[in-house]
């Protein structure tokens, strides 16, 4: 049979076909389980073993408990013990839409999800293209805050980060959002962090079980809320009391004098700044350390490599294969964390003298930057702050190299002597 | 059928294909169970299904001791890669060596094995007032394992002429320790298993730290012997054994021993009669258990 | 059947000028017309736009109506015209080449003044602010008390550009990474930020208020949300705002909220 349709009808058909091409209804987005932790649930990744990995039944139990305690990305729940405001969570959660009064909902998905991921794991679609990687909230570690190193950031700290962004990274400034929207997003970040920390705690508890528990966590209120959730939530609430007390900067201080004192401290043996930040201040003192998030993956990869040559039984071999797969799908390639180049004038945690004081006093949680609080006095910290702030404008001499400090050459002769005795 | 018709047919088929629902990977939560659990968690009834822990009724105290022996050839320890401050970071001009496996050549005693009680119902000793010393010299930590009680002050010292920073993983203690001085650190939280202690300036430096609430933790000495005194008597206590090089889960060291039943996680349970020194005797650690 | 088909296509083509004109007529009332112009010299751009719109509009309507007329009149179904084959007409070709060329030439010369005002006649004033485009934000740097950019007292901000009203303002535009475009719709200003170049942009606002800064050159995955806000305020208020921002930047103590609670901000 020879069908000969007029061209016009054909074109109309083509147009209507193209119009109906599309996707089926999208299912609601789920939270993802922390599979890296599920396969190696332990705080100390130096010694992990195949027997520790969570079996699928255990993974399912963790997922179920989390669903009960925290809900879904579209319908978040929070127990009263978390101290979170459910109304703010509802504003931030779910798909982007307007509610009945015309207010925009789904803020997290609109602004944050493509980098930070739906689970707050820093594994959003754009994450792999960014340097540095977006923050993974799940360990509950945040770098730029006004509290002591071990403590959580305060509410105001998180608001500041949203407001100013993090200069030198891909975290933009959300200062143009309304205060209500920023509050909702901060609440949701806390929610994701508490959820992530609970997930880690639950997974690590499997190691603590006795044989009679038969590999299942107890699902009582006493265990889940009092023992697991409460300590986590309390740290967040207690953050407001852990703000670093900053004594007043010394008054009537000649800036040049302070900068000179700061330089002495910077190059000195007490604060040891040059060991990492380099004698030039360019951040070239050291190049092989990792931040805590990457360190995790590096240790696991090290473990897998060390197992590679050995005779493994089938269970172990399967575990190693699973691990490789999980790392491919669930982890970003670890990157070393370079010490900050102080001559650029870009300060991620904020450029106020106060912010630099916080960084030096408490170090940076999650990063190798140590706390100087016990070693140098507050007044000395102010001197270092003034010196650091002068570095981007310090144009005298060649990159301000301090010729009075001898740069140590490697002691080649002493090693050569040892080679012969081995 | 004409070419046109075939083309139209193909286009119709493509338009209905579209995207299917995306596959969900990973474990799927049990919604029904979650709903039930949620009800439990929201209820404000005092948990009456909580297991009442057996309160130990004993009043006596006992001790546990033993000696770890390494069976096999420990091999040579590897030199550490020292690339900074090389004049200071060497022992009498010689290289620094990895200290994670220390076997006494004469007695074959295995040092740095940690034994701690997982849960004890009562504690005899009051908190020690004088701080425990944890020192570092020649860019090495002088104690491979720091064992302390939660709340016991630890004097983290630095006996080198250069600065170090001591980073206790998991505790957020990462402090610069000035040369020739020290900082008091009071652990506020129990570690599960021992955690690493490192220095970010000299990355080859490595030690371990374990903090326990009840303080029942011992580290075997150079000859492999350890003793845990003033343990609560007349109650079954589960002990965890750990070594840095152990291939067991989380570093747990499980031995094959006729007198005690060891779990694969490196634990054993024992009840100590009051005023008794329970001597476990010689505990043989095969080289394979430490991955050698 | 064929007659209907012929009419259908003719009417379809007629719909183009009809709907086209209708859209333009309705646009201002449904807020899809030109954004509000608050600049002193934006009227030049707008008037050029209207002039060209008018000119091209007339030609457009004329050609479309003619197209419809030919489709209608010479429909094969009616069959009362026989096609006549010609070898072209040089007169026609000359006419419809020279007239558009002349129009274009006229437009090119007519707009030169407007272009020079916006892009070439730079006012001799020091830069009020340096705007650096970065993926995906606008980083701002004000000169500070010493009036010089690149010194320690500069004020650094992001996305929140404040400028004095009723004053000629000079922006120094740079890019930190890739091509961006500094687009102020309400001031009819658009200038590409080229990496490696320092490009001056000047304008003068006539009204206070907050308006959009938008990125108009595809710069990556975040291009769509590379938005800023420019706020015009009176000169005294601008100076006060600058002082306040400088003080915040030099803070050595956390600020205290009205409720007595310390906020790090």
> What average pLDDT do the residues of chain A reach?
85
Total domain count of chain C: 2
> How many DSSP H or I helices of chain C?
5
Strand content of chain A: under 5%
Order of helices and strands of chain C: HHHHEEEEEEEEEEHEE
Write the layout of secondary structure elements.
The complex is a heterotrimer of chains A (422), B (292) and C (265).
Chain A: H1 7-20, H2 35-39, H3 56-70, H4 86-92, E1 97-98, E2 104-105, H5 107-111, H6 113-116, H7 155-164, H8 179-205, H9 221-238, H10 255-267, H11 273-277, H12 292-308, H13 314-330, H14 353-362, H15 378-390, H16 412-421
Antiparallel strand pairs in A: 1-2
Helix pairs in contact in A: 3-8, 4-8, 7-8, 8-9, 10-15, 14-15
Chain B: H1 3-17, H2 31-42, E1 61-71, E2 114-117, E3 132-134, E4 136-137, E5 140-141, E6 145-149, E7 154-157, E8 164-168, E9 173-177, E10 182-185, E11 195-198, E12 206-212, E13 217-219, E14 225-232, E15 236-242, E16 267-271, E17 277-286
Parallel strand pairs in B: 1-17, 3-7, 6-12
Antiparallel strand pairs in B: 1-14, 2-13, 2-15, 4-5, 7-10, 8-9, 8-11, 11-12, 15-16
Chain C: H1 2-26, H2 42-73, H3 90-110, H4 112-120, E1 129-134, E2 137-142, E3 155-158, E4 160-164, E5 168-175, E6 180-184, E7 189-193, E8 199-204, E9 209-215, E10 227-233, H5 235-249, E11 255-256, E12 262-263
Parallel strand pairs in C: 1-5, 4-10
Antiparallel strand pairs in C: 1-2, 2-3, 5-8, 6-7, 6-9, 9-10, 11-12
Question: Overview of this structure, please?
Answer:
The complex is a heterotrimer of chains A (422), B (292) and C (265). With 422 residues, chain A is mainly α. Chain A has 2 domains: 35-241, no CATH class; 255-289 and 338-421, Cytochrome c-like domain (Cytochrome Bc1 Complex, Chain D, domain 2). Chain A is built from 16 helices and 2 strands. Chain B is 9% helix and 30% strand. Chain C is built from 5 helices and 12 strands. The relative contact order of chain C is 0.12. Chains in contact: A-B, A-C. At the A-B interface, helix 1, helix 3, helix 9 and helix 16 of A face helix 1, helix 2 and strand 9 of B.
